[in-house]
Structure of Mycobacterium numidiamassiliense ORFan:
Amino acid sequence: MAVAMRLTRLTLGIASGALLSGRGVSALLTLGVLVERLWFRHGVSWTAAGLAVTLALVFGLALGCSQDPGSSSGANPAGSGPTDFPNPLMSVLTKLVTKDIPAETYLAVKYSLLSNALANLDFKKAGHTSISELSNKQDYVQSKGNQPGFFAKPFADNNVDVKQADGDGGRYDYLKDGETWLDYAAVNLGGGVFHNGFGQEETMALEMPELANAAAQGGHFTRGQGCKDNDKPRPLECSPAPLYVGPVHRTMKVASGINEPNGKWKSMPIDALLTYMTPLPRNVELNVLAVALASLEGTTGQEAEQPTIDDMFNTLAAGFKLAKDNKVTTLNTGPIGTGIFKNSTKVVYVMQKLAAMQVGINLRYYGLSKADQSTWDPIVDHIVADYKGGSHTVKRLLELAHDSLK
């Protein structure tokens, strides 16, 4: 108890001192996280440590953000528009340490990752994140008995470039500022970032505090109403509703080994956890395109069935159109929906290229081998060649895709 009291006073002292000395919110958060680690090394519980640090950070942010031009003021409802940074994220951090971690101790790992990423954020550049949606979502409404209207129109067949990108072992490398990256999204933005999820989308949110804040705001969905199970949206069950989130800043790299084998992170001690997260020397500014494919988890033989093909093309075309509306000429992408959603990597590549041709957007494709691309590009060429020799509608193109991929 004596140690806890001393550390509490030290934590609050750092919060006050950082503000009084004019060191700013970023310095405050960095020092707060250092104290968080000190708590853990003294054997104080995750809950007590996290609560003390969170209270200090809330106190500091309440005062500091009002002096910071990068902050947002006032609450905003979920939907298109600003994301009220950092209030939703701070509310989630408080809930994690007061309610969630006592019930599920492994969530302390998520708390530590989120607070470290937040600590490394340059607040002078932060707080300008907004979320936008398609202005013509009705064009992509689908169901098992209703195809989107553009399926009856000719395939656009734009000339596009799909480049293979090596990246970080097939993962995104985020090397340049200002680019847009595809989020392999769940139906609810952020997926299980504050719970037990640790896929591609959750990793993005853990590395990008403003994206985590948008997820914490709630009410942002990447597919429309009609999904019977938001964790497993089935083909043609609900319509695409992609989201464009930005700008956000990547402040930390979370090593892929943290979740290998699956679930490893849940039992990770704090000292080991620190070896899997690396604060970046500078924040990288980027934009996020959140798209959710249909899930085939628990099904068999559905990878290239017509409903899967139709849903995937429509969903990708909607997302790519939203990116193009935001002046994106080259989208960074990868094998979306091929993890727990169990889609075929071949089908996903072919449909992404066809959707890119429909919209007119270039792709930089991560997690794609040169051998696979050299095998799959001829499939696309064959589908398009057959399309040109017959009925000129998107519907016919997708029937040919089904025939070529089944």
User: Anything to note?
Assistant: The chain has two domains: 2-119, 132-405. Residues 1-24, 38-44, 62-78 have pLDDT under 50 and may be disordered. The chain is about 45% helix and 15% strand.
